[in-house]
């Protein structure tokens, strides 16, 4: 940890922090195109989201496929939202896929209320995309393919962690990992844990947001019938910023 008490960094003025989006992309300030309009969606929402993730990757954004995932928890005092970050690990006209523990807080919330909203944000590009719609588990064969691509350490971690449950100490967590490492010693292909797999968000809406000057941003919302991947069936509307 840095020694914050002796730091000479001036006090943060959070209210004064602001960025002007869509400043002209001149030679000295190469930036993304900002004139987002309906023509960008001619081939559907999926190619545009793919392009934006590619451009975020080129801009050296860390985890350009990270998305903040909102789920709904049903409680005695009514439904409550919860958010956390996950990585988009599959993108197709069918929707966006992420992988997690089915027994985690989010896994249980999605089992009871299979609907989610996920936002990818790339502040350096002045862009965000929100995908919202019903959620279903992906086929075990699809999970298997992705599982095989994961490093062995991540596979062991998925076995060792009872995600979202309290644990007495770091030492206890390390002990669980050691136990799984020993359990799978000599096993070449670690199997997919029964409590682990992918969820697919089938978009009902996908909103593309591109920041522009004076807060007059471009917002395009694509309306879809979940499960219908026909580009001709999608509708696009412009929203006020
Ligand atoms: C950049 C980033 C990527 C993450 N990716 C995943 C992921 O793909 N799957 C996952 O289960 N958790 C991922 N996490 C951890 C989650 O944010 C979260 O802590 C965990 O899934 C438990 O969430 P829950 O208790 O709400 O179920 C990621 C965290 C960060 C910061």
From TrEMBL:
Record's keyword terms, sorted: Flavoprotein, FMN, Oxidoreductase
Domain Pyridoxamine 5'-phosphate oxidase N-terminal: 54-176
GO biological process: pyridoxine biosynthetic process
Gene3D superfamilies tied to this protein: Electron Transport, Fmn-binding Protein, Chain A
EC number: 1.4.3.5
Keyword DNA repair recorded: no
Chain ranges of the Pyridoxine 5'-phosphate oxidase dimerisation C-terminal domain: 196-241
Pfam families: PNP_phzG_C, PNPOx_N
First-tier enzyme category under EC: oxidoreductase
Required cofactor(s): FMN
GO molecular function terms attached to this record: FMN binding; pyridoxamine phosphate oxidase activity
Flavoprotein found in the keyword field: yes
Family stated for the protein in its record: Belongs to the pyridoxamine 5'-phosphate oxidase family.
UniProt xrefs under NCBIfam families: pdxH, PRK05679.1
Name of the protein in question: Pyridoxamine 5'-phosphate oxidase
Organism encoding this protein: Nocardia uniformis
Lineage, highest ranks first: Bacteria, Bacillati, Actinomycetota, Actinomycetes, Mycobacteriales
